[in-house]
Fold this protein.
Amino acid sequence: MNASSSACTKAALVLDRFYNTPARQGFHWPGRILSGPGVLEAWLKDAPAGLAIVADRAFAAHPLVVAAGGAACVVDGEPTRAGLDPILSDLAARRPSAILALGGGATIDSAKALAAHLRFGSFDIRDRPRDATPPLLIAAPTTAGSGSETSRFFILADASAVKISTRSWSLVPDLTLLDPLLLESLGPAGLLLGAFDAAIHLWETHVARGEASAFTDGIAQAHLPHILAALPGLAAGLKPDAATRQALMEASAMAGVAISNVRTGLIHTLGESLAAQCHLPHPLTLRVFLPAAMASYSAAIAEKTQGLWRMADALAPRPEPWSPETFTAAWTEAFTTSGLDQRIATAFAATPVSLDHLCTTAARDTTLAKENPLPLDANALRLVAAAGLGAWPAPLRDDGMADATRLREVRRIPRP
Ligand SMILES: [Fe+2]
């Protein structure tokens, strides 16, 4: 490696590891987005030769996948190394110039992992800078929520079923096609769960104490109100119109950009820790902790979120103005009326959760202490976790019931 390429690599690595501080703020995103009805079909008319399609099983019979014939690889569920090995062998033999991922977050994660291995010879490519090695990666999401269609992350389970998150700007899809026609077949539960995940991505990047910047604040203020405007219809199980579907897809995609620049916070840390103990979809693990997290820091973010609530009042008016309290109440009502809360209660009844285990897992997130809107020590983290779990019937093993009623102590922590 000569001196100039070494310097380039070094600069790329600095960029890959870059996160904001209050004194030094930046924004990076190396992808492109096309959004509108029919953008996928239009793009396919000029698609590069040697295109491979990685499609969700639910889209295996989609006309575009059928038309691709032998160029389509069908995946199902969250990716594992063992599950991807045969597809990787197939693709390595075909050497595609580009991979089109057609599916939800797990399908796009599968395509990212495959593209990573084809480019770098390994799934373990944390912070490896991108060169010109093919294949290109194109994401056409069929859900709206995970943000994988634009983010610099993928999650892949290893041989022990442990989910490993890999981060690199080189994994951001080269092109993201947001086609609301692809969201037509997604049912009301999938739409609501996805909208909530994207909303929490936008929320947590907006209230991060040190990493939030004007760049990502603009993303939250522009897109979170559109999700809130769609919320009543989603909660009622109504089929959204094309403009609403497009707004939800754009919100999810831009939330994927936001979480690539600013790390998620308390709700995601506790939700992901809960997922290690019980089988719930990712957005439902977030729902468990939204009220307790919001109550713990709402006073600290009142000034910061005024602009967001003004935009929400304009785009998604409701009888009471938007605030941390009405935000929490609106989502709580949506999960209750849609019946999704019952899935959480059923999961907890089947497998009571250990608060000790949950807090031990969550405490590994060393970013949280400095990014939470209020300083967060182990005691405060435990109280928020206990309050979140304590809102559900019999969710806990007997190691945390006394903590579940003490959330008010968190609010006594002085502001920085
Ligand atoms: Fe998420």
